[in-house]
Amino acid sequence: MCVFGWLFPSGYASSGAVGLVLGHPFDTVKVRLQTQTTYRGIADCMVRIYRHESLLGFFKGMSFPVASIAVVNSVLFGVYSNALLLLTATSHQERRAQPPSYMHIFLAGCTGGFLQAYFLAPFDLIKVRLQNQTEPRAQPGSPRPRYQGPMHCAASIFQEEGPRGLFRGAWALTLRDTPTLGIYFITYEGLCHQYTPEGQNPSSATVLVAGGFAGIASWVTATPLDVIKSRMQMDGLRGKVYRGVLDCMVSSVRQEGVGVFLRGLTINSARAFPVNAVTFLSYEYLLRWWG
Ligand SMILES: C[N+](C)(C)CCCC[C@H](N)C(=O)O
After folding, report:
1. Average pLDDT over residues 67-90
2. Is 216 in the pocket of ligand 1 (CB under 6 A)?
3. What sign has the CA pseudo-torsion 28, 33, 35, 38?
4. Which atom of ligand 1 is nearest to the CA of 27?
5. What is the whole-number distance in angstroms between the Cα of residue 109 and the centre of ligand 1?
6. Which phi and psi angles does 209 have, rounded to 5°?
7. pLDDT-based confidence at 138, cuts 50/70/90?
8. What is the pTM of this model?
9. Which of 127, 181, 229 best tests ligand 1's pocket when mutated (most atoms within 8 Å of CB)?
């Protein structure tokens, strides 16, 4: 298996773009709950989005994540797979007979998580900024939202905040994703190993369930830094200015208590199962065709 032959097609197949579309309304509610204090909970947030912005309100900011997921997942799964290859010197097929150690799986997952964060950061920033625009769809005479669409949002951030502005929140994103993608792959491989007879490939049902739980385990542990990441990405726009990740943590806890770190936990977990079940299923099939 070679690095380059693998990287791009794998992204498209393992993109889970369908899951991403289905999961996007949940993601929008989560981002709002994490960064805006006006909503009383999940139901209140959903009702208000629907009333003021119609069903389309839930799909704000979706185009960039869908367009970039192939590249982001190529980096994640490509780096993970190749890091494991380097660490264990066994191919994907041989690995069923000689499973790698959990330490190696964790390290390979962390490496993938660390590197994908830089590809994800600008797309994620634009997604969050658009998801947070509460204006209803433009009607004649109504106030226009600050950003007219993803390209306009990217161009405005570039102009107003400089090229580095596009990486706002990238450090919090890296801290969020490095360990939690290690956890992601450990959970996935561990569950597959547990429920698959020696030397065989896991069944589709096993892959779906293991992938779903991997998503949940990873998102549960990622949620505290997910809150901080979203707040750093919105920094400056609503007046509040954080001096860094630590300052954002301290001031969020001071104002809202430690419970602030759990904002979006339920919704993150509910979204994680289907999205990641689909992602791992396509990843496994692809490895069997290519690997
Ligand atoms: C590491 N962290 C938990 C943030 C993400 C793990 C899963 C990533 C997947 N693309 C999804 O959107 O669910």
Report:
1. 90
2. no
3. positive
4. 12
5. 12
6. -70, -45
7. low
8. 0.91
9. 181
CA of 219 from ligand 1 middle (Å) equals 7
Q: Which residues contact 116 (CB under 8 A, 6 or more apart)?
A: 72, 73, 75, 76, 79, 177, 181
Atom number of ligand 1 nearest to Cα 177? 1
What is d(CA 144, CA 54) in angstroms, rounded to the nearest whole number?
Answer: 16
222 C-alpha vs ligand 1 centroid, how far in Å?
A: 9
177 ligand 1 Cβ < 6 A: yes
ipTM reported for the complex, 2 dp? 0.97
Half-sphere exposure at residue 113, Cβ-oriented, CA atoms within 13 angstroms: 24
CB 59, CB 28: distance < 8 Å: yes
Q: How far, in Å, are 61, 182, 279 from residue 104 at the CA level?
A: 36, 9, 21
> Which ligand 1 atom lies nearest to the CA of residue 275?
13
Count of Cβ atoms closer than 10 Å to residue 232 Cβ: 24
**CA of residue 133 to ligand 1 center, whole Å:** 23
Q: Please name the amino acid found at residue 128.
A: V
78, two tokens: 């490509």
Q: Which helix (H) or strand (E) holds 3?
A: helix 3-13
Ligand 1 centroid – CA 153 distance (Å): 23
The conformation of residue 168, written as its DSSP 8-state character, comes to: T
- The atom number, within ligand 1, closest to the CA of 23 reads 12
Q: pLDDT tier at 90 (50, 70, 90 boundaries)?
A: confident
List alpha helices for 89-138, DSSP H.
Answer: 92-97, 102-131
Please identify which residue in the block is written with the tokens 């830094």: 225
How many CB atoms lie under 10 A from the CB of residue 135?
15
pLDDT in tens, 28-61: 999 999 999 899 999 999 999 999 999 999 999 9
